[in-house]
Specification:
Protein name: Molybdopterin molybdenumtransferase
CATH architecture of the largest domain: 3-Layer(aba) Sandwich
Strand content: 25-35%
Shape: elongated
Structural class: alpha/beta
Domain MoaB/Mog: 180-316
Pathway: Cofactor biosynthesis; molybdopterin biosynthesis
Number of helices: 8
Distance between the termini: 34 Å
Bound molecules: ligand LQZAQKY5, molybdate ion
CATH class of the largest domain: Alpha Beta
Oligomer: single chain
Catalytic activity: adenylyl-molybdopterin + molybdate = Mo-molybdopterin + AMP + H(+)
EC number: 2.10.1.1
């Protein structure tokens, strides 16, 4: 029995739910979903303040100032940022004020330096400000109690800025899940180590750990486990306690040494084919209550399976919506063929020209082509029943590096 992509996605997503909220220091919250509404605890600005370096005045005193008949006022002091000793301005006087500093009681306009002689003892004012000109009123931007960000909103740099500005050191957010990444195969070697005639470097666990991190989660790269089911289970169990999700690569097809399948079948993990290419052999189940997604070993299959099944699981754990990357439409620059009955995720390179978004197929459909994978920025999604597409056809694509 072959499952559809949606059936397997649903199997994985049914087993995960958003993690309980925690208090997160502001900068660590970048990319996280807020777990509760944020209301302003203070006004922004917090007090009437000057938008210019200049002189705070009572407007009535300078209403008639002009080049032809300037007004001269005594300067009674200076109000710097964080140094606001002059709290009240009497009639018939001016006080120097810097941008952002509190406008004193009584003053109702600021005259910028450029309209004056910049005097220290007295100031000559050659232009009259309009009422309230260059005064930024308290609460102009944000008022106390105002709903600023809703639960579920993703914290980005601009939101971090706002949260800090209202004085929050931490926010209540869904934490980053810890995702354990394990690659299986007795042929695998660590990058940097010596290669034998029959060994290859372990690209997958690095690729998957990087994808976990890019998704906003915390990767725990365990690395290589050989094709021995006992050793695999021991290693897996050693890491379950502090894992929210486990991702394995390799050992799930029809071989004589398919270690993941052998080890986890007895644990009740589901294994079977999914109607997609690459990524046909898949598996998923709970081991000691922890969701384990078992991806095929071919590197391109592993990457695409991560994108289709693991990324939505991570995003669900993080409370991020939508769970799966939205598809966009693009114009195909070259024809391609696709197997009947399987959804193909063909690698592509998306660009823009005068006619809009286009996509060029990159490399062939085979799932060992890591060189081409690294030169792609998109997946062209060819539906199960479509076996050929021509130049100029509209296709659905997943833009792999887009933020959503
Ligand atoms: N008789 C059949 N054979 C295969 C079938 C099938 O249906 N019948 N399916 C093929 C498909 S499709 C895939 S995909 C692979 C999946 O195999 P496994 O998940 O068991 O993966 P392995 O056999 O361990 O490895 C496959 C391939 O990928 C290389 N690999 C594995 N791990 C890594 C790694 N960490 N870094 C880089 N490369 C890795 C490995 O050396 C193999 O070349 O099965 C097909 N066979
Ligand atoms: O389906 Mo396998 O995952 O193509 O190479």
């Amino acid at each position: 029995m072959t499952d559809t992509v949606e059936e397997h996605q649903a199997r994985v997503l049914a087993a995960v739910r958003p993690a309980d909220p925690v208090d997160v220091p502001l900068l660590d919250a970048l990319g996280l979903a807020l777990a509760e509404d944020v209301h302003a605890g203070i006004d922004l600005p917090g007090f009437d303040n000057s938008a210019m370096d200049g002189y705070a005045v009572r407007r009535a005193d300078v209403a008639d100032a002009s080049e032809a008949s300037p007004v001269v006022l005594p300067v009674v002091g200076q109000i710097g940022a964080g140094q606001a000793d002059v709290r009240t301005l009497e009639a018939g006087a001016a006080v120097k004020i810097m941008t952002g500093a509190p406008v004193p009681e009584g003053a109702d306009a600021v005259v910028p330096y450029e309209w004056t002689d910049r005097g220290a003892e007295t100031v000559t004012i050659r232009q009259a400000p309009k009422p309230s000109q260059h005064v930024r009123p308290r609460g102009d931007d944000v008022t106390t109690g105002q709903l600023l960000l809703e639960a579920g909103a993703v914290v980005g740099p601009r939101q971090v800025g706002l949260l800090a500005q209202i004085g929050l050191a931490t926010v209540r957010a869904r934490p980053r899940p810890r995702v354990v990444v394990l690659s299986t195969g007795s042929e695998l070697r660590e990058p940097g180590a010596e290669l034998g005639h029959d060994s290859i470097y372990d690209g997958n666990s690095f690729m998957l750990a990087a994808a976990v991190q890019r998704a906003g989660a915390v990767p725990v790269r365990v690395g290589i486990v050989g094709d021995e089911p006992g050793a695999f289970l021991t290693t897996l169990r050693a890491h379950l306690a502090d894992a929210d999700l486990v991702v394995t690569s390799g050992g799930v097809s029809q071989g004589d040494y398919d270690v993941v399948k052998e080890a986890l079948r007895a644990e009740g993990v589901w294994f079977g084919p999914v109607a997609m290419q690459p990524g046909k052999p898949q598996g998923f189940g709970l081991v000691d209550g922890v969701p384990v997604v078992t991806l095929p070993g071919n590197p391109v299959s592993s990457y695409i399976s991560f994108e289709v099944f693991v990324l939505p699981a991570i995003r669900t754990l993080m409370g991020l919506a939508p769970a799966a990357r939205p598809m966009v439409t693009a114009r195909l620059t070259h024809g391609l063929t696709s197997p009947d009955g399987r959804r193909q995720f063909m690698r592509g390179d998306v660009g823009f020209d005068a006619q809009g978004r286009f996509v060029t197929p990159v490399g062939g459909p085979a799932s060992h082509l890591v060189g081409a994978l690294a030169h792609s920025n998109a997946l062209i999604v060819v539906p199960e029943e479509v076996t050929a597409l021509g130049q100029g056809d509209r296709v659905q694509v997943l833009q792999l590096d887009s933020v959503f």
